[in-house]
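FAQ

Q: What does a record look like?
A: Structure on top, sequence underneath. For example:
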């Protein structure tokens, strides 16, 4: 069974940086896309950034220019570099990897990110 394990969350001051990483274990034949989502207390889970294996990316407007997603489909990893962080970035961040062609989609357990002085 495929498992995604996230790391890199924590506490950071406004304006600071964090890097989240996500690695898959258990054997994935092919990943089409990977992404990061987040859920703040009392809010719905929202897309932060997505990248496909052909390199196309999509970012939430709130993180454009500050966050960068990087996916390695061969290694089954995805990372999220977060710069110039703001208090409103505080949330639990989840990674997702999927391939609709083979009906595969898996989520990580989530990692807490807190932006506060």
């Amino acid at each position: 069974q495929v498992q995604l394990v996230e790391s890199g969350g924590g506490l950071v001051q406004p304006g600071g940086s964090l890097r989240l990483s996500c690695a898959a274990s258990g054997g994935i034949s092919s990943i089409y896309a990977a992404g990061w989502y987040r859920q703040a207390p009392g809010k719905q889970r929202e897309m932060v950034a997505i990248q496909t294996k052909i390199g196309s990316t999509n970012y939430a407007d709130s993180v454009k220019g500050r966050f960068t997603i990087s996916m390695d489909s061969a290694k089954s990893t995805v990372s999220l570099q977060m710069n110039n962080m703001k208090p409103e970035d505080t949330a639990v961040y989840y990674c997702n990897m999927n391939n609709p062609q083979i009906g595969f989609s898996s989520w990580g357990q989530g990692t807490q990110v807190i932006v506060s002085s």
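Q: Is there anything notable about this one?
A: Residues 7 and 24 are 12 Å apart (CA to CA).
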